Amino acid sequence: MLVQRNIRPKRRMIRSAGKDAPFSAFVYVFVTLFALMCLLPFWLMFINSFAKESVIARDGFTLFPKAYSAYAYQFLFQNTRVFSNYRVSILVTVLGTCAAVTVTSMFAYALSNKKMRYGNAISFMTYFTMLLGSGLVGFYILMVNWLHLKDSLLAMILPYLMNPFFVFVLVAFYRGIPYELNEAATIDGANDALIFFKIILPVAMPSIATVTLFFALQYWNDYFLALLFIDDYKLYPLQMMIRTLISNLNAQQFISGSRTAYAIQIPTYGVQLATVCVTVGPIVLLYPLLQKHFVKGLTIGAVKG
Amino acid sequence: MFLFKKLGTLALAVLLMVMAVGFTPAYAEQLSPVELKIMVPGDRPADMDAVLAEIERLEKPTLNVSINLVFVPWSDLGSKTQLALLSGEDVDLIFDAPWLHMDQMFSQGMYEQLDGFIDTYGPNLKAMRPQSMWEANTWDGQIIGIPLGTTVGGTRAYHLRKDLREALGIAPIQTHQDLVDYLYKVKEAYPDIVPYSMDKNATDNNWSSWWIEQHNSDPATIVNHSPGGVGMTFLFYTEGKDGTVIKNIFDDPNDTIWNAWREARQLYLDGIINPDILADNRTSITQFETGKVASYVSNSVTVEPSERENIKVNAPNAEVEAFLEWSMGDGINISDFKVYNFLCIPKIAKNKERSIQFLDWSNSTQDIYDLFAYGIEGVNYEKVGDKKYTPLSNTYPNFSYVWVLNPVQDRFDSRMTDDEVAIQMYFREAEHWERSKLSFFNFKSDEIATELAIFNDVEAKYMSAVGHGVVDPDETLAKVKAEAYDAMKVIQAELQKQIDAHLASQK
Description:
heterodimer, A: mainly alpha, MetI-like fold, 15 helices, disordered N terminus, B: alpha/beta, D-Maltodextrin-Binding Protein, domain 2, five-stranded mixed sheet, three-stranded antiparallel sheet, 18 helices, 41% helix
């Protein structure tokens, strides 16, 4: 009896799927295969970071290396710089993302409001920066000679605080929110700040989450600002470590014309892969954390009648 | 009142210090504290802090310098150093080289002329480098960088698998033909080993370039590439031991050059040269150390000890030997005595005297030099006699070529044999070499910058592939001619004009 009871609901489910079953099966198989294909490079990177160096040199990258060793990670963590680099990366990403999301979302809200005076002019000025860059030397002089931000964490945070592209993404989203919400709150006595933080922000969560993710990725993956403005190795983010690692691989090419045998320590494959694994770590966790916000459409049903 | 007293004492102390500095010609007493910012390429070694602490402990009582050593990734070296110079950043010593942007930075007036500083503050710097090195490494007759190098002339050598050669019953390789025979036999007997490979981007370091260079010992067929530093291949060349007439390969086809290109092509078609040579991102030495490549051309004329050890990890029976076809004698070979790396002082730097004093101190005794170059004795390295050392750790690899290197104090790896050291010494001792007529010549390319850019692009696009034999030389050279011939004529005329003027001024 027990067995029968268990089987019945299953049968019903299949019946309710009806003619779509073969199609669903196809979709499942396709998506699974596709997911596996996406996973494959990560797997290769992960498993080969534990492979013995000689195995990689002889057999290349394999799905399941023949011999394993933790040398790469030992080598990586014997240098305490990894930990300070980690701290800097996390600090810059957390502070930067919070500040950037706050500034960008507030700016975009102001721009999206129809009552905003000179809104179009400010929009144009925001948009204009997307077309023309300032040039590297000017930017460098501004940051280093005028603002004195050399060797400061702020140098890695400030330049990305407001991203015009994300501003327009958010403006478009805010405009989709019924203005009646705003009016109702105003009648209830809320001021602009209260309206933004208590009413608009929760409703706009899906777009804010998207922008947050992009900002976090941008801060986490950035090495360029550190390369320009940070000379103190204790303030390097993790990405500078990868940058140096990769460029050491190519160093031979830069100096090949000089006819001298240079003693350049070329990191082994294992160390390269382990470095990438270590730097990818925390940021991967951000996706599932923010994912729930992407699917929610919060404005549905917010205005009745 | 107390504050005033204190301030007064402080002022007196400062005054006394200024007087002490002002009246002390050398640095017998402690100088005022200064931080030197030094920008060099590479990756910060794990033990850098320990070594810097030891350096500062030794020099603080006199020089009183705090060292801020900034490492720039190799790939960003050009842009980052240029930016630092252009924006007027406060850097005291900066690495530069002719292969980077030294000519350009010099012509923009970025670097301080150092002749006077070295005369006053750099007796050791001067003593540790041969006079010929100082004379040849000038820009418009001025010293603008401390030369960091050991060799006065250079060449390359084939590194090959000795164990394979012996297993195949081949006698030690003496000639170019011996080598080619060896490669064909390796291909036949070991199908899974690539007979010969190189770096993929090697306009100047490939089968043909090296083949041509070997003829430099034979007066009848001597061809020199990149005269005046133009180009990396034999698109421009001079003939004869010390040729000063610039030729281009299209107007004056040269047999030595064409034969080399055709030979490379044949070797590629026969599977001797790595079929994937243009796709392999690994350096040639990395490929060789996997044990799956039988030979390559190395910048080092002898086998590096690390190379010998690394290959054994992957191929336990592997033995490595170097084949150097080069007549070593006096007066046979010419050189321009140019060094490849320099440490310069930007014009706007604040502590020029102290920078030179500091560098001078680094070259002052063997012990101090050893500290800079090899780290802390007993931890990072061990001395072996006067001229050798054994590295003990990988936490302070030798990167002396970015700041202190000189031919007198540099040590050899103790794992090198005496024969290998003797070969290395030949390339370091100025007395064996004759000075080439163009050794003081600096090509000023500002006037023809556009043509040079076109030429460099085309050369980079095609000539690696030609040199490796991957493409047909006749077809490809026709493309090079179509795209760059006009520019080349302009460059050739300008180069010849400047060389003639230079030679006239030398007389």
